[in-house]
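Final report, closing paragraph on structural work. Over the funding period we assembled a curated collection of sequence-structure pairs, and we close with a single example.
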Amino acid sequence: MSNLKILDNITSTVRDDLRVEIKKGSKVSIAAACFSMYAYKELKKQLESVDEFRFIFTSPTFVKEKAEKQKREFYIPRLSRETSLYGTEFEIKLRNEMTQRAIAKECADWIRKKAKFKSNTTGENMAGFMTVDSGTAQTAYMPINGFTTVDIGCERGNNSYNMVNCMESPFAQQYMQLFDGLWNDREKMQDVTDVVLENISTAYAENSPEFIYFMTLYHVFSEFLDDISEDELPNEATGFKQSKIWSMLYDFQRDAVLAIINKLEKYNGCILADSVGLGKMFTALAVVKYYENRNKSVLVLCPKKLAENWNTYKDNYVNNPIASDRLNYDVLFHTDLSRNGGQSNGLDLNRLNWGNYDLVVIDESHNFRNGIGTHSKTQDNRYQRLMDKVIRSGVKTKVLMLSATPVNNRFVDLKNQLALAYEGNSEFLDERLNTSKNVEDIFKQAQKAFNAWSKLPQEERTTDALLRTLDFDFFELLDSVTIARSRKHIEKYYDTNEIGKFPERLKPISKRPCLTDVNNAINYNEIYEQLMQLSLCVYAPSNYIFPSKLQKYKDLTHNKGENLTQTGREQGIRRLMSINLLKRLESSVHSFQLTLTRIKELINGTIQSINQFEAYGRADLDMYDAGGDDFDIDDENTDFFTVGKKVKIDLADMDWKSWRTELQQDAEVLELLTFMVADITPEHDVKLQELLKLLSEKIKHLINSGNKKVLIFSAFSDTAEYLYDHVSEYIKKNYGLNTAVITGSIDGKTTIKGFQATLNNVLTCFSPVSKGGDVLMPNSTTEIDVLIATDCISEGQNLQDCDYLINYDIHWNPVRIIQRFGRVDRIGSRNKYIQLVNFWPDLTLDEYINLKSRVETRMKITVMTSTGDDDLINPEEKGDLEYRKAQLKRLQEEVVDIEDMSDGISIMDLGLNEFRLDLLDYIKRNGDMDKKPRGLHAVVSATDELPEGAIFVLKNINNSVNVDNRNRIHPFYMVYIGVDGQIICDYLNPKKMLDDIRLLCRGKSAPIKEVYERFNRETDDGKDMAEMSELLSEAINSIIDVKEESDIDSLFSAGGTSALMSDISGLDDFELICFLVVK
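Its predicted structure, as stored:
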């Protein structure tokens, strides 16, 4: 008999030869790169009968890592050597039969009885071979690359040939000696049997549903994980983690900082939209520190009222907690963009090199949401200026936007903010995003979906319904450039013990005082009737210029390129004034009276000029310039007041007679109004008296022990000062406590003698703990207990020592109310409870809203007649009123988070953020998942919405599908299929699918006994998986079918077809990553 034969693994296979050669009591020794349990299954009968089975991994596999990294490895990298226990990539088909659980179990039992595994621990190359010693005969086989179904000839794999020499003695003895020599070499070998067993048993353990959920996320989002590994930070950043600011951040802020830097590096822009009270400013400061460490110059653009905050952190002040970081950014205001010169915050705007900033941080960036060309008729567009001056010119500028509410009901707002990051040229971003459509199209599609959704009847208009119609591209885009976390996220994913809890919000108290208790005095409605009569034509002289003379003034007043004509400006101011009268009446009778007087003086002065002109033929007339004091913070921020120059109009060019007649009519109405409210003195100001009662109540019945602090907000400085005059005296006299007031126009006043009432000092005495009072005023024991303020402190201040907030007037924009509350409703508050009190006008909410819309419409009509602009209240604004109404209604009942407020939709719902946070959190706790076997499953209980069946998570392995890019998470496909073979959710809706899986699994961290036992009985412990297998192939067919349907559609659509681009294929093109059995 010849002692050498060649097995070609086609007509004669190693498997068949072994089935003959391995006899009962044989000893089998194999040295190879990997071991697959499917090869064991092929030779199970023979292997069960051997005496011993020895296996050497020829390269380091399952060994404990020695310190030095191995040299470059040839052949199969370590990870795939280790995972091939559960089948190699060419044994996918076997894995898809889903019997791996049964096989793993049998294989593990056999290993315990018969087998030993060792691994080479050196970098030396060893060629693979195998010997069988049956006592009577010895056989050796070589080369054997791995012990897998491919190597023993059951599958073809991707080998073009696979010839194995089969030798008998005397050659076989040499191989056996070689093997024994290796096996006993302690230097080179390490026993890994236990590790192999441990690994193989994970393939048949019962898994918790949660584990399968994370397994799915891990595979689907594995490329996202790059974002978060700490190594992603460029190395020059070494000092950054040692900075003072970094040490002050909470975990959730640190995560955000790393993600922001990443996004800025990758996409050039990022919107940080964490909800109110989560400390966005500190997060941003850490980002600034990172860039300053790399010698980049940074500009912060913020609303004027927040300048104090930003200045504190960069200056060498005692109360700057991060003074040691020596931050050195420039701070300018949003409105500076519209100015052409002058000083601002210590910088000379004439000489400022706007184009030289590497990073711009825009605080409250939602002020820039108008973009170009939307309201440009009325506003010199700051947005345009920002784009041209800062972002496009000079060095490449990265943009970090801090925004409280980036999505309301228009996605355009969001798009415009993003446009700043890609310099208005969306192709910049398209290149970096891996979405199938470009940014413009993504937003168009999203807006279209949103518009369709907003027309649905109320009960169908759920967030869910909207998410279903949005494109996955949209989620992906948001995920790439925004970071938005709500309080709920933080409470859920981070350890709140370290951070401190959020205080509990008590139900808001609503007060509706009438105007006054004077007998037969006036009420709101009567005043409104009179207000409706006013034309306020004093603010719009241009309407009376003779048409023939108009051009002369156009040339004078048109600020070149600034798109705001004098008429436009006047109309704007006029409309603001009329709404303002309403707002001020709601605020306090006192500020209403002041405004009436101011307007009356203006009108009388104008009438006098006209009379003088009539008598003497000459008079000067200054165009009115509105002062900021009369307005609340949002109105003051419009550009009417900062743009353009005053112009004198010559009365000879005007139809002054008609003008005078109308002015006189207004004067009479104002006279009447003044008379109507004249007898409402502070004693009879019911609202004021109600406030004093409230304060007494609060001081007598504290909601948190020892805390007497109250914060009172009003939209107007006049009201705030009026309140201060009365409240401070009352509180001091009755309770001996101190009061202070802060408004935009006066720095601060307080009842403490000799106290330097700067904004900072006042806030520090009011909220010493959160404001670091111990460093700013180390020996001071003065405390301010009642603080009255305008919205100049409604954003960005942390006043959480206080637990009681009163809105003395309801702001027209509900978001403002929540932002005010965000001063005290903050993470880490030492108060257990916090209380919100709202004062409403003495009307029903409907009357109140209708009133507003009437005033707005009326002003619009006059605007229309004068400008020929025919948009009355456009649907968008109408929608807006409805929306405000709904929000205000809710605010009467509960305190809501901004992101929960809107009927619109919040950015929090849109990204894939939740899943990402889930996964990060899991990996931080449990380490990586790449070694876990594929094809695992868990059994969960069905619910009403989620019926019995199975959810398969598959990976397409040869890119034969998805040519048309419909699947956003290609190469992964998830299909939920019912027991009856009906598809419950197909692969084109990955967001919904992940939500379902999450719902079924999250929080279930142990296997669910009653369901998995039932499943094991039905499948004979995983041996009989025919039914499941059937469902799997139907699921795979559904992917191919859905694909074919969309192919057929594409035959008839523009852009050609995807039908001809890829051959449809079956089971073998998908690998089963994991599955959930829903019982």
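The CA atoms of residues 952 and 1057 lie 28 Å apart. The chain has a mean pLDDT of 78. We thank the funder for supporting this effort.
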